[in-house]
Design goal:
Blueprint lengths: L2 H5 L5 E4 L4 E10 L5 E8 L4 E5 L3 E4 L2 E4 L2 H28 L5 H55 L5 H62 L18
Parallel strand pairs: 1-6
Antiparallel strand pairs: 1-2, 2-3, 3-4, 5-6
Length: 240
């Protein structure tokens, strides 16, 4: 999309992934060489925020905001296994004597540092997802009570049919969005947890294998030499 087209989005509403309008495009931040770097968003209460371009999707006349949690989770789910595989490939190269030990040590330490930081970032996103899940759960509960109260008032005749249908449709749509949002956060949290657990499982498997090899080698060195059996054929008198 050309730079001139993006400026046409100024003033356009911004929706989240669940269809809610959360603000509008106020302006863009550009780098000295003219590339779009960020979007300035204006929320309904008048507050402004600056968001990186990768957090927004421009599709036709619509602008969609992708939450930071989901965006970062996707990146982490790709990067953590990739760094782990690179480190494993590095170890294989050392075993095959294709790289020098000092090169291995330097790169292995570098991969380890990056992996530790990525795991910390993943845990932060997992914790933030848990907070959002709880928020969605509370919203779903409140909406369920709102629907129940609407049904009661309609049942006793205090809410007319037209008002009831309009309010019920609005509450149901909001409830559907909240449930979808909660499902997405559940999935995000589960994916990241699986990535971290998978890496830990690989480490445990590797440690177990190393321990088993050590035990087998140790047992082999401690076993006594097998006894030498000498079979003696008895020769009778006729064979003398």
């Amino acid at each position: 999309m050309s730079n001139s087209n993006l400026f046409l989005y100024i003033g356009k509403p911004i929706k989240n992934e669940y269809g809610r309008i959360i603000g509008k495009v106020a302006s863009f931040a550009l780098t000295p060489d003219g590339k779009f770097d960020a979007v300035f968003m204006e929320f309904g209460d008048g507050q402004f925020t600056k968001q990186p371009m990768e957090n927004l999707r421009f599709n036709g006349s619509e602008v969609t905001y992708v939450t930071r949690i989901k965006s970062q989770a996707g990146t982490l789910c790709d990067h953590i296994p990739l760094i782990w595989r690179k480190d494993e490939a590095l170890k294989d190269l050392l075993d095959k004597k294709k790289i020098a030990p000092e090169v291995f040590q330097d790169l292995h330490q570098s991969f380890g540092t990056v992996l530790v930081q990525l795991k910390k970032d993943a845990q932060v996103i997992i914790d933030e997802s848990a907070i959002e899940i709880e928020r969605c759960r509370e919203e779903i509960t409140s909406l369920s009570y709102a629907i129940a109260n609407l049904e009661i008032e309609h049942e006793i005749g205090k809410v007319d049919e037209e008002t009831y249908k309009s309010a019920f449709a609005l509450l149901q749509e909001t409830l559907k969005r909240a449930a979808t949002e909660k499902t997405d956060y559940d999935l995000t949290k589960s994916k990241l947890a699986s990535v971290l657990l998978g890496d830990q499982s690989q480490n445990i498997l590797k440690s177990t294998k190393t321990y088993a090899e050590h035990v087998n080698n140790d047992v082999a060195t401690k076993l006594p030499e097998p006894p030498v059996v000498v079979y003696v054929k008895e020769i009778g008198k006729a064979g003398i």
